[in-house]
Amino acid sequence: MSDSEEESQDRQLKIVVIGDGACGKTSLATRFAQEAFGKQYKQTIGLDFFLKRISLPGNLNVTLQVWDIGGQTLGGKMLDKYVYGAHGVLLVYDITNYQSFENLEDWFSMVKKANEESDIQPVVSLIGNKIDLEHMRTVKADKHQRFCQENGLVSQFVSAKTGDSVHLCFQRVAAEILGVKLNKAEMEQSQVSHNHTKFFLSNWTKIYSFLLA
């Protein structure tokens, strides 16, 4: 195989998506891989698997193997095997469900334990999902940021429903794994989109209240 052929090959990364049931893990994976959103909740039993090819700066093509782990599997016999050897982990919670945030400690502890003997230590990203429901938020953003800082996690807010920052959250974790620096516009996109969503919802609430008055 020539050097040029070898350089043109895709890199492949295993990305595991975990968190409580109903926090939007499957919706997140489906939105990313298939650009679709299912309106009805369907519990994932065991494991779903998705593939998606993305591009990173430097003409680097990366195939992400996305492992969507059912939320009911915390403590299950197969969970450590699913997580073992992952290059990246998306630790997902629902910003409108405080319990899903509290349970992150258990999920994160499981990730660390599962990879104690692995040659690969995964990059872990904390994903606050459902920012389209900002007006129903029960987990304050500063709690999210504190958890990231205390545990050295990548931080991201997304909406699987609208697609807001979904592609970026996978792109960021892939870039972090491979040591690729994203440009400033890409890095700022998440916060800009998040603030825009907050601004829109806040002002829509005011308009709606005015119309009802």
From TrEMBL:
PROSITE patterns referenced in this protein's UniProt entry, alphabetically: RAB, RAS
Source domain of life: Eukaryota
UniProt cross-references to Pfam families, sorted A to Z: Ras
GO cellular component, one term: plasma membrane
Principal location class: membrane
Recorded GO MF terms: G protein activity; GTP binding; metal ion binding
Group of enzyme by EC: hydrolase
Family matches, as InterPro entries: P-loop_NTPase, Small_GTP-bd, Small_GTPase
Catalytic activity line of the entry: GTP + H2O = GDP + phosphate + H(+)
Keyword annotations of the record: Acetylation, Cell membrane, Cell projection, Cytoplasm, Cytoskeleton, GTP-binding, Hydrolase, Lipoprotein, Magnesium, Membrane, Metal-binding, Methylation, Nucleotide-binding, Nucleus, Phosphoprotein, Prenylation
Membrane topology listed for this record: Lipid-anchor
Location(s), subcellular: Cell membrane; Cytoplasm, Cytoskeleton, Cilium basal body; Nucleus
Cofactor: Mg(2+)
EC code(s) of this entry: 3.6.5.2
Function: The small GTPases Rab are key regulators of intracellular membrane trafficking, from the formation of transport vesicles to their fusion with membranes. Rabs cycle between an inactive GDP-bound form and an active GTP-bound form that is able to recruit to membranes different sets of downstream effectors directly responsible for vesicle formation, movement, tethering and fusion. RAB28 is required for shedding and phagocytosis of cone cell outer segments (OS) discs in the retina. Also participates in nuclear factor kappa-B p65/RELA nuclear transport in endothelial cells.
Similarity comment text for this entry: Belongs to the small GTPase superfamily. Rab family.
PANTHER family the record matches: PTHR47978
Listed name of the protein: Ras-related protein Rab-28
Source species: Mola mola (Ocean sunfish)
